[in-house]
Amino acid sequence: MKKCLTVLILCFCFLFTGCGPSTSVNSSKASANFIGFVTQLEGNQVLINDVWFSFSDQTVLKTDKDKKLHKDDIEMGKKVNVTFDGELQESYPRRADADQLVFLTDQQSKTEGSVVRLVVKDPRFSQVVIQSIEKNPTGLYSLRFKDLSIDRDVHVIVNVENERVIVPIHTSTK
């Protein structure tokens, strides 16, 4: 009986040892990256794809070539790599606090930024939340987004050279 009681007490000790609060020696914050396009700017918040990122004076704003930027340098359509604490609020669009905004300056990012800018400036759309962008074999860009003002998913084709946004007409073949 004594042996059984001792084993039982040891089991409870091991069980409760694992249930205590975590005291990690390395308690650094985990960070995450998010790449997307600027489609709205309101005060100290910027909508990048489907996330509103808040930023402050402590948030680092720069280009990928380490050129320091200011809030006034944020433009619609710019492609951005955002570093944040990894916590996204569950809303739509989601929300997070940005630690760093790095604006990408390579040619592909500039061209894709022009595509997004054409759609954002198009009067047919008002609250654009980017879902995907890809270049077709024909050289045209396919852009999928949600227009929050009408609560619909939209697919457009963009011709950057002619600065045209084409909304394909879907016909049923019944």
Automatic annotation (TrEMBL):
InterPro entries: DUF3221
Keywords tagged on the record: Signal
Signal peptide: 1-19
Superkingdom of origin: Bacteria
Protein name from the UniProt record: DUF3221 domain-containing protein
Organism of derivation: Rossellomorea aquimaris
